[in-house]
Amino acid sequence: MSFLKYLIPASFLALLPTLSFAGSHGGNLDPSDAVGISFWIISIAMVAATVFFLMESLRVKGKWRTSLVVGALVTLVAAVHYFYMRDVWVSTGASPTVFRYVDWIITVPLQMIEFYLILAACTAVAGGVFWRLFLGSLVMLIGGYLGEAGFINATIGFVIGMAGWIFILYEIFAGEASKVSADSAPESVQSAFNTMKWIVTIGWAIYPIGYFMGYMAGGADANSLNFIYNIADVINKIAFCLAIWAAATTESDA
Question: pTM (2 decimals)?
Fold first, then answer.
């Protein structure tokens, strides 16, 4: 009967797309609007992923449940913000930049925390790993937002954001987190860690490229950027959390 505690939240999540669209400014989705359709697909995919991770957290060992619940929070927060971003786009055709950053300022630090959580579930890991990844993600996002929103020079914001991202990459490729994974983690966790770090490297690269093209290289087509960002978020959030789920289920079944 323990699954019942997730039944009401899951039911509410299933209704969120309808509730959100009902509250939009009378906008209707154009069948030829590929960007709008991508907003719909990702918002519903995030809901489905949230329910999946919550339900799967019930069958893994206790030490892995926090990781899966945090993964569900990542997709839940993304789903809620994508409902709003979708309505902004369908109703106005404008890029929902502020909503993207409100989403990222919550979900990206949670994703960085996941590196610490999967290692802590199987071996001893210093709290410094947690704080370095957390603070690196904040520097990356705050710098990017201040530059993109016009509070500081776009180039300065880009440099600050890139510094935060490079710091994160150092930690997961050559820093303490990487060494703990290579030396002490079981094979399944190492596999998840490697998948996650390559998502952070390759998948996340689309964001600074979009920033550079949009604000430092004479502008970029908003339709193309939003479509690419939407597809990237599916991989960078859902696939990221699926790697954690794979490690959690493998270790629990073993």
Answer: 0.87
